[in-house]
Amino acid sequence: MIELEYTSPKTQKALGLQNISADPWFNGLVMSGWSLIQNDDDCSEVAERYSLAEEIFARPCPRVPRHGFAESRLVKGETYPARAGHLSEILWEAKALDPGAEVLVGRWVPSESSSILTPSGLAIGWRHDGATAGRDSFLFPFATPAVMPTGEDCGVKAPEVPYIEAVAGTDGIVRAVQLRAGPMIPAGPPNRVYSTRAAVLVLDSSKYGDLEWEKVCSEVGVKYKHRGWEDGGVVALHPGATQACHHAIHAAVAGIAFLTTDCDGIQPGTELNQTAEASAYSWRAFTEGIQAGYLASRYSLTAAIAVLHHATALSGEYAWLLGAAVATIHRYSLAAIHGERRHKKGGKKKKLDRQTIYQAVLENFGAVLKARRDLPDIHAEFCNPALWSSSFGGKPWAGCVEAVVRLDEAIRQALRIGLLTTAQKGGKQASISECISAAHVIINAAHNTGKFLNKWVSQSKFDAAAVADGRLLLKETPTLFNWYAIKQAFALHRDVSEICQRMARSHSLVGKLGAEVGVKTVKAPASKPVHAGPKPTPKTVADVTNLLLKVQAIQKTDAWVHIQAALCSGMVVVGGYAKLDVSLTAPFLPMNAGTCSASFAGSGTVYTLLGRPKSWKTGNLLVEKFSVGTDGTSGEVIVAVFVSPEGSIKLAIQHNGESHNG
């Protein structure tokens, strides 16, 4: 536990730091060596706790939690008396703003990036204060709330939730430096507008300091509340910020609309539309992410897997995160296959070690292009049982190659559409959805002794990524910020890099697998209208095990609700889906509703999951009831999963005698 010297902490920031140091959840995330100053007598003793050769940092703490307070800063002075004097100045500056203020002192950590973890998203920004100041920052919104300490565990009282601030040092280590309280803000678009109406007052939030902006928001909220302007008439502009920065929080508390993108030309009289979750992926953002993933010097497979688990929340401009994740998984998949190839019988007498092969494939984009060209030959080798012992290679790895070729072709097609060919309506959306599906297949693929990519990611990390574990997400901020920095560098030029062009023009590997050994080839994904939905080949009982039945709904009109049901392997729909429009006599309010999910038709529309997904095993008849209304049986639908005589999986939805078979 961190020892805060002299007296017990009284402010929420200091208490929060003490609480997280005692909480096992933060093991490995909190640095030691913090001290607490409450009066002048503490300044000299605290200054002398640290060597003059190391830099120390002072963080003023208000008695009542506030988003933005007296500025945190490095402590000046080449002697102990000089440092003590500067600490005293910082203390009394803070007390002038809040008589109960304290000052935390710790060792300075040179930082590449900073972050704020909340239950609904992870904000990441440049250097030590980019996330909180809204400077060169971005938001990673979550599809499900992050697993993190509850408010009760860390001294945060409802309805507020914990905000965990961290910095990623130049050494690549992520350290939690603060826990504070903040309002629960659902993840959503980068702009927040409360109603469709003309702007009445437009403010440039970026011109104000934290304390000034807090005061402006307070005054505006009181002055204009009686006129109804607080629900959209007052607009704050802050390009480059996120909805988790200090300025955005102050605006949210005051009911002020907050825009972080598309700010040019906004003035009194400009008509603003109420924001809602984007229903489609931005192809431009996705391709910018592809570039970042292939060029990243700091890459992490764990970060890519974590991002893919939140695909339903990453529509619109957030799609760049998905592009980076997909490219990263492609790189690691190629490395895994080349690493396994070295175990072939009759190969080189002196095998290269695994890490050398991995590093050669992961080194740069040129290595990616070279490694993908070898896939047909490697696939043929895996299909020859004479070349492998029972523990290496063989048909399981041939299946892994087929999955990688599917992803490879999906990326090619997504880049070709818009760069080299003219897409049909919805073609870009379908191509991005295919990339996401193919990447999920790779994540779930297995070989002889475990998951395909388990050389880099343990089973515990696979599990943590699936449930949005906050510790894992925080530790991946160096990779996420590296992706962002590369994306921004290309965005400045408004151009598609040579990376995307080269991948789009590369030769397709489809049809080149297994021609001599009778292995089924991988088909190229076709561009389909966005609402046409996937047309998978029927799956037989022998094809699948341990699937989940997912049922989801969306309200179409006041009286009608659209229901979808599908069997899924991870994020991938197996064997098509069933759908039915249900008429309700009571409001749509699914009981025990789960999280959000994307439409099984591939349109990008966000649905509400009805309850928890149900496990289904091959050969079993599964019948489940789900409620989508508030009046009992009128809102009850029955979903059944069964197997047809020819062995295909079938689903049926029934409501008041009406049914649909998928």
Question: How many structural domains?
Answer: 4
Rg over C-alpha atoms, rounded to the nearest angstrom: 27 Å
How many H/I helical runs?
18
- What is the share of helical residues? 25-40%
Name the average pLDDT.
76
State the end-to-end distance.
57 Å
Q: In this structure, how is the largest beta sheet organized?
A: 6 strands, antiparallel
C-alpha geometry: globular
User: How many beta-strand segments?
Assistant: 24
Q: Unreliable runs, pLDDT <50, ≥5 residues?
A: 1-6, 226-230, 515-544
Structural class: alpha+beta
**How much strand content do the residues show?**
15-25%
Task: Write up this protein.
Helix 6 (246-254) links the parallel strand 12 (234-237) and strand 13 (257-259). The relative contact order is 0.08. It is built from 18 helices and 24 strands. With 662 residues, the protein is of the alpha+beta class. It folds into 4 domains: 12-182, D-amino Acid Aminotransferase, Chain A, domain 1; 197-272; 283-505, no CATH class; 541-661, no CATH class. Helix content is 33%, strand content 20%.
Features:
single chain; alpha+beta; D-amino Acid Aminotransferase, Chain A, domain 1; 5-stranded antiparallel β-sheet
How is this fold's topology laid out?
Elements: H1 12-22, E1 35-37, H2 40-47, E2 56-61, E3 73-74, H3 80-97, E4 102-107, E5 111-118, E6 121-126, H4 130-133, E7 137-141, E8 161-169, E9 174-182, E10 197-198, E11 201-204, H5 210-224, E12 234-237, H6 246-254, E13 257-259, E14 271-272, H7 283-295, H8 301-308, H9 319-341, H10 354-362, H11 365-373, H12 375-382, H13 394-419, H14 427-444, H15 459-466, H16 470-475, H17 477-491, H18 498-505, E15 547-555, E16 560-569, E17 572-583, E18 596-598, E19 606-609, E20 614-616, E21 622-627, E22 636-643, E23 649-655, E24 658-661
Parallel strand pairs: 11-12, 12-13
Antiparallel strand pairs: 1-4, 2-3, 2-4, 5-6, 5-8, 6-7, 8-9, 10-14, 15-16, 15-19, 15-20, 16-17, 18-19, 21-22, 22-23, 23-24
Helix pairs in contact: 2-3, 5-6, 7-9, 7-17, 8-9, 8-15, 9-10, 9-12, 9-13, 9-14, 12-13, 13-14, 13-18
